[in-house]
Amino acid sequence: MSHTPTPRLILETLLPHLKVAAAYAHQIQTQIATRPEKEGYDNFFATALSDADLSIQTFVEVLLLGYFPNIRFYGEEHEQTYNTKYFRSIELGPPDDYLVTLDPIDGTRFYLDGHTNYQIILSVLNRDEFEAVLAISPGQNIYYYGLRGQGTFQGTLADTLEACHPLKLAPSGETIVLGWGMETLAEPLRPKYRVIDVANSYSREQEIPGFSSILQGEVVGSVNRAGQFIDSAALAFLAQEAGCIVTTLDGNPPPPLYTCHHYRRGGLVTAVSESVHQDILRAIQMTQLTSQK
Question: Under CATH, which number does the domain 7-166 receive?
Answer without folding.
Answer: 3.30.540.10
